[in-house]
Amino acid sequence: MECAAARLRHTIFRASSVTRPAFRGDPVIQPTRSARPAHAIALGLSLLLGACVGGQRGIGVQDRPTSVIFLIADGAGAAHWTLARFATEDLALERMKTVGLVDTRGSDHVVSGSAPTASAYATGVRTFMGAISVGPDSVPVKTVLELAMERGKSTGLMTTTAIQDATPAAFGAHAVSRTRLADISRQFIDRGITVLVGGGRRFFRPDMQGGNDLIAEARGRYTYVETVEELMDLRPDTVDMLLGLLAETEMGVVADRGAGTLRKMTETALDILDRDPDGFFLMVENEESDTQSHDNMGSETITTEMLDFDEVVRLALDYQAEHPGTLVLVTGDHETGGLSLPYGAGLERAAFAAWATPGHTGVLIPIFASGPGAERFGGIIRNDQVGQVLLELLGAEGR
Ligand SMILES: [Zn+2]
């Protein structure tokens, strides 16, 4: 936590003409007592076939990645990455030579939230605010994680917030509302996602699961850990499936969760997933780049979160160097805060954060790509096109 003076120095810069959009993006996590079995809506799965986008039609098998590592810094726009770049000469992100800009709009909104954009990435379909991989008609749409499973690949979801939160939920579940956290938890386990690590333990408990102890149920198939220490003590070669619920709800900022913890989580995931000769799909999210931007925190806080996330990028790119069939994507899901780095707003020479809003904004956000198919993500690309290209690269029929 930074000092009040620093926060004052770094945060107050709001033009009176700024109109704040109604903020519907990321509600505080509310427990839900509804727990519907996954198969009830799994029956409604449909793959919506869209136009071939992002380049030439008809890619060869050799151009397809064996594995995908999809890294999402929630709320991160160009200014967030600029702070990280200014803070180090060794930003791993700069090793990624394909750069694009994502238009994050959804089916019913211009300024987006985590749920609809992550859903667009996961399914190739733009949808409504709060939706978890259902289309505008509320019908579930097959996700890239589900397609990877069909292709025999292992799968993984990790985040610094509750594992049921919108971004991981959109890859591993279907729901008409992101607030259905118990249902989403149930779907993760029923679907058999190989590695699940984050917070959100409370939503697995009997009082949230209609009397069922979802942790006890999961232990039948999963190795289960509750602390970072237990995670570090694992011998990944002895683990087939991993459930790590490291916090009751959120794991918090770097100072709370521990510097490098997200990288350690990802190392463990890669050690497990790498054993699958068919490859894997892994999504890793840092939530705090969004949460701290909602709070309009100072540049040190944002920089710390981005640099901690960059260590995950470094790990992914080092893994890719040894496994060239791996596609690495790095992006956000929308920009948060209208972060800018204006001239003359501070007394020192260091870049500092100035904010336009405590909510999300609709500006284009950067996407970085490296590996087989990376060039398909360059230029200006819609969030649903990102998903369509991913589905095509993983061999969806008709793409
Ligand atoms: Zn947000």
Features:
single chain; 399 residues; alpha/beta; ten-stranded mixed β-sheet; two-stranded antiparallel ribbon; disordered N terminus; binds zinc ion
Task: Describe this structure as you would to a colleague.
With 399 residues, the protein is of the alpha/beta class. It has a single domain (74-346, 355-393), classed as Alkaline Phosphatase, subunit A (3-Layer(aba) Sandwich), CATH 3.40.720. Helices cover 32% and strands 15% of the residues. The protein has helices spanning 4-11, 38-42, 78-87, 114-123, 144-150, 166-172, 181-191, 214-218, 228-233, 254-257, 261-273, 288-294, 299-322, 383-393; strands at residues 67-73, 98-103, 154-162, 195-199, 223-225, 242-245, 280-286, 326-331, 335-336, 360-361, 365-370, 379-382. The strands form two sheets. The chain has a ten-stranded mixed sheet with strand order 5-6-4-3-7-1-8-11-2-12, sandwiched between helices. Residues 25-26, 75, 290, 294, 336, 360 line the site of zinc ion.
Architecture in CATH?
A: 3-Layer(aba) Sandwich
Largest sheet: 10 strands, mixed
Q: What's the order of the H and E elements? A: HHEHEHHEHHEHEHEHHEHHEEEEEH
CATH homology superfamily: Alkaline Phosphatase, subunit A
CATH class: Alpha Beta
The share of residues in extended strands comes to: 15-25%
Overall number of domains? 1
From the spread of the alpha carbons, the general shape counts as globular
Rounded radius of gyration (Å): 20 Å
Number of helices: 14
CA-to-CA gap between the ends?
A: 47 Å
Low-confidence stretches: 1-57
How would you state the average pLDDT, rounded? Answer: 87
